[in-house]
Automatic annotation (TrEMBL), chain A:
InterPro entries: 2Fe-2S-bd, 2Fe-2S-bd_dom_sf, 2Fe-2S_ferredoxin-like_sf, 2Fe-2S_ferredoxin-type, 2Fe2S_fd_BS, Aldehyde_Oxdr_Iron-Sulfur, Beta-grasp_dom_sf. The keyword Cell membrane does not apply. SUPFAM superfamilies: 2Fe-2S ferredoxin-like (SSF54292), CO dehydrogenase ISP C-domain like (SSF47741). The lineage of its organism: Bacteria, Bacillati, Actinomycetota, Actinomycetes, Pseudonocardiales. Keywords: Iron, Metal-binding, Oxidoreductase. Residues 3-79 form the 2Fe-2S ferredoxin-type domain. It comes from the Bacteria. The keyword Metal-binding applies. This is Xanthine dehydrogenase YagT iron-sulfur-binding subunit.
TrEMBL record, chain B:
This is Aldehyde oxidase and xanthine dehydrogenase molybdopterin binding. PANTHER family: ALDEHYDE OXIDASE 1-RELATED, XANTHINE DEHYDROGENASE. The keyword Oxidoreductase applies. Keywords: Molybdenum, Oxidoreductase. The keyword Oxidoreductase applies. It comes from the Bacteria. Gene3D superfamilies: Aldehyde oxidase/xanthine dehydrogenase, a/b hammerhead, Aldehyde oxidase/xanthine dehydrogenase, molybdopterin binding domain. InterPro entries: Ald_Oxase/Xan_DH_a/b (IPR000674), Ald_Oxase/Xan_DH_a/b_sf (IPR036856), Ald_Oxase/xanthine_DH-like (IPR016208), AldOxase/xan_DH_MoCoBD1 (IPR008274), AldOxase/xan_DH_MoCoBD2 (IPR046867), AldOxase/xan_DH_Mopterin-bd_sf (IPR037165). It comes from Kibdelosporangium persicum. Residues 517-536 are annotated as: Disordered. Pfam families: Ald_Xan_dh_C, MoCoBD_1, MoCoBD_2. Residues 16-120 form the Aldehyde oxidase/xanthine dehydrogenase a/b hammerhead domain.
């Protein structure tokens, strides 16, 4: 069964026909040619497909496209504006926070979403619940970024990059 | 240029997600192929009913052994796809559904009805099987067994003997980018966008299977989302994609393996059982080193991991013996996984060295220094360079090793046992012959460098650009590098840490030829070729890279939970082309080594012959929170013998020795010696209950 939906992707309204079974990830990649979100596991286990969906980090392989008609989506490609990289993207380059680059767009979207969560005071499993606000220590960043796997093992660079961007 | 920490030239493309991986190349109106897999471990297909699948709207073809094209070569049994009814392992490719959309293809695949005549299968790996056999050689062509002196007598006479069995489990490479191919037949030409570590080697394998002239196949791979060996050789899905494309002339067919399918189809590291025996004097000086390895292979295609190789080269001892024996089972085909041989093969011996240090009451760093050989123990040749001792000493100084308590189980902090451990690393220097490079001066004043190399995350785009700029004495922005395409001059596979050694030498050769021919004022269109030069130094020298890894481990006294707050590696690997990307290679290898130490284990259900934990929720790899303090350093090392660049290769040595260092630290923390990876909590608790 097909449905016509509209997705606002990186600032552009995109009309697309999707199968009711089509994930948001496949709608973006295979129907719209938006390849920044990557397919690593298709089961919500690796985080490579992370985008910002209505400003929150979401794993698009676990979301059906048909349920998100009208959604606002920002991918790693859309985070860069007018040839200017987002500070998180620049920090990933500065700290070599990737090797093969396949998990990277998901890591970066996840980091951008995570920084907002921390700023809003959302605690993680390692947060000091008595503290007034979240202090983004390396341990906090590692905990909050552990939904995004990196097989190349660039975690040290990823944490350093996010620390830089958070400053 | 060489030696400068240039940021990755493909960095912007990767952080914006615009770098194109195989499945992402734009093709018009593609079809999608979904593989069908055997659900028995051994037997024959007696019937395959595709009518329900073919009746689904949008299904274009169902390919099975009944209608698949005849392959020209079935010599490689792994690639002999759909050529018979025979099933050799559970998960084997038995067909594909091709449809207009991926959803339709996958749905229809579930409607194909397959009947089997199953045969009894055998997937039980144990070291005491009575049918173990001796392979002719071990990967790629090393002697299976070696012997010097008289190990048995020496062990009988040694005042101190360490004699234990160590095991490493079956593990899977699991690059984050699954194995994907986009294949298109057009005018008798097959074009493939493939996730591969070698475009030319992939083409060669496929050309042979299909019986095509290689010139009729083009393989393109500008960016590859990791491989770790699993994309180093063609696997069955590649042939399947070519067959699916053949059924749809003129239309591109996209085939992506699922994460689950990768556990059956793209290789893995065999489990290993390592019987290690060390004999020594009371002073710790080794008199005998013996290592007997048992591992598995598939019944249809042999892969003999060279696990006992590092024991042949690490430490001096007059009496030595190594052996490899294999169990041929009805299981998926094992293959390369990062540092085949060295990675598992430095677990047993390096833990045994720690046990020997304890038995002799010695510091484990001192024990290794004491047993440093003057020449390569295996061949008797001198090493072209060997700086293991320098790595151990510098690592010890940086890590704060001198403060270490000698006795295990002495430091407890807030309910955690805390300890530190060390292990050595080594990896051979490989330079593969067969790469060519072209340098061409362009009208825009830049130099086009062409070579069919690949960048699997290692930094090839950046490092080869630096090497070319250095060899031509121009700025890096005057270099226009092209890689990852069989239309470029041939290049060897990105494997065995050989890439920069081999391709870089070809680029240097081409640059020298260019300057010899055209000087520094070339005209547009001027071009010169170069190749990887032969190197006779290997006849005179043993060539290896070395390193030392230090770990701090905490084991929770009540739960057995194990954490690694600190890892520190120091490596001696020849010349470093780019310290920024090199550091990432070392840290990445060490992180994967930690992952191996703490988590990784493919659990094969012997009753059915498949890996039950076949996804990333159940096959655990290191996550961000697993990695805390981690540092990589290197010692200055100039080695004029290895190749014109003086590089030794850095992609694999970082994973070698890490697991042993962590296991040794866990012993120092708890007093519990775990000899079977991974170091899960139960092993510390089970031991404590005894």
């Amino acid at each position: 069964m097909d449905a016509e939906i509209t997705l606002h992707v990186d600032g552009t309204a995109r009309h697309v026909t999707v199968d009711a079974r089509t994930t948001l990830l496949d709608a973006l990649r295979e129907r719209l040619g938006v390849m920044a979100p990557k397919k690593g596991c298709d089961h919500g286990q690796c985080g490579s497909c992370t985008v910002l969906l209505n400003d929150r980090r979401v794993i698009t392989c676990l979301v059906l496209a048909v349920a998100h008609d009208g959604a606002r989506i920002v991918t790693a490609e859309g985070l860069a504006q007018d040839d200017h990289l987002h500070p998180v993207q620049q920090a990933f380059i500065d700290h070599d926070g990737f090797q093969c680059g396949y998990c990277t767009p998901g890591q970066i979207c996840s980091a951008v979403g995570m920084l907002k969560e921390a700023e809003a005071g959302w605690p993680s499993a390692v947060s000091d619940l008595a503290a007034a606000e979240v202090r983004l220590s390396p341990a906090e960043i590692r905990e909050r970024m552990s939904g995004n796997l990196c097989r190349c093992g660039a975690y040290a660079g990823i944490v350093a990059a996010i620390q830089q961007a958070a400053r | 240029m060489i030696g400068s920490p240039l940021p990755r030239l493909d960095g912007t493309a990767k952080v914006t997600g615009t770098a194109r991986y195989a499945f992402e190349h734009r093709v018009a109106d593609p079809a999608y192929a979904y593989p069908l897999q055997a659900t028995v471990a051994r037997g024959h297909i007696t019937a395959i009913n595709t009518s329900a699948a073919q009746a689904v709207d949008g299904v274009l073809a169902v390919i099975t052994h009944e209608n698949a094209p005849h392959l020209a070569s079935t010599e490689d049994a792994e690639l002999a796809v759909l050529q018979s009814t025979e099933i050799a392992f559970r998960g084997q490719v038995i067909g594909a559904v091709v449809a207009d959309t991926s959803e339709t293809a996958r749905h229809a695949a579930g409607l194909v009805e397959v009947s089997y005549d199953p045969s009894p299968h055998d997937a039980v790996f144990t070291p005491d099987r009575d049918d173990l056999y001796t392979p002719d050689t071990v990967n790629p062509s090393f002697p299976t067994d070696t012997s010097q002196g008289d190990v048995e007598s020496a062990l009988k006479q040694s005042p101190v003997v360490v004699d234990h069995v160590y095991t490493t489990p079956m593990t899977h490479n699991n690059p984050l980018e699954p194995h994907t191919t986009v294949a298109c037949w057009h005018d008798d030409q097959l074009t493939l966008y493939d996730s591969t570590q070698g475009v030319h080697s992939t083409r060669q394998s496929l050309a042979k299977a299909l019986g095509l002239a290689p010139e009729r196949i083009r393989v393109i791979a500008p960016h590859v989302g990791g491989g770790f060996g699993s994309k180093g050789q063609a696997h069955a899905h590649l042939v399947l994609a070519a067959m699916a494309a053949q059924a749809m002339p003129g239309r591109a067919v996209k085939l992506a393996l699922t994460r689950q399918q990768m556990f059956s189809l793209v290789g893995y590291r065999t489990p290993t059982v390592q019987h290690v025996r060390l004999g020594a004097g009371p002073d710790g000086r080794l008199t005998a080193i013996s290592m007997d390895v048992v591992e598995q292979t598939s019944r249809i295609k042999e892969f003999a991991e060279q696990t006992a190789i590092p024991a042949r080269h690490m430490y001096a001892a007059p009496n030595r013996r190594t052996t490899h024996r294999l169990a041929a089972l009805d299981v998926p085909v094992p293959s390369w996984m990062r540092a085949p041989g060295e990675c598992p093969g430095m677990f047993g011996p390096e833990v045994a060295m720690d046990e020997l240090a304890n038995a002799c009451g010695m510091d484990p760093v001192d024990l290794r220094v004491l047993n440093e050989p003057d020449v390569d123990p295996e061949s008797g040749k001198p090493f072209s360079s060997r700086n293991l001792v320098a790595c151990l000493r510098e690592g010890a100084a940086r890590f704060g090793w001198a403060d270490r308590e000698h006795a295990p189980r002495t430091r407890r902090e807030h309910g955690w046992w805390v300890g530190t451990g060390v292990a050595a690393s080594t990896y051979p220097v490989h330079v593969k012959p067969g790469s060519s490079a072209t340098v061409r001066f362009q009208p825009d004043g830049r130099y086009r460098i062409e070579i069919g190399a690949t960048d699997i995350g290692t930094g090839t785009w950046t490092a080869l650009t630096q090497i070319a700029a250095d060899a031509l004495s121009v700025r890096v922005d005057a270099i226009d590098l092209r890689i990852g395409d069989t239309d470029l001059p041939p290049a060897t596979v990105a494997g065995g840490s050989s890439g920069i050694n081999s391709w870089g030498s070809a680029v240097v050769d081409a640059a020298r030829a260019f300057r010899d021919k055209f000087g520094t004022g070339p005209n547009p269109g001027d071009e010169a070729q170069g190749t990887t030069p032969g190197n006779s130094a290997g006849e005179r020298f043993a060539m290896r890279a070395f390193g030392a890894q230090f770990a701090e481990v905490r084991v929770h006294a009540a739960t057995g939970e194990i954490r690694v707050p600190r890892l520190l590696g120091v490596f001696a690997v020849g010349r470093i082309i780019n310290p920024r990307t090199a550091r990432s290679q070392f840290l990445g290898g060490m992180t994967m080594g930690m992952s191996m130490a703490l988590h990784e284990q493919s659990v094969l259900d012997e009753r059915f012959g498949h890996v039950v934990n076949h996804d990333l929720a159940e096959y655990h790899i290191a996550a961000n929170a697993d990695v805390a303090g981690i540092e990589a350093h290197w010692v200055d090392e100039t080695d004029p013998h290895v190749n014109p660049l003086g590089t030794k290769g850095i992609g694999e040595i970082g994973i070698v020795g890490t697991a042993a260092a962590i296991a040794n630290a866990a012993h120092h923390a708890t007093g519990i010696r775990v000899r079977d990876l991974p170091l899960t909590a139960d092993k510390f608790l089970a031991d404590a209950r005894r």
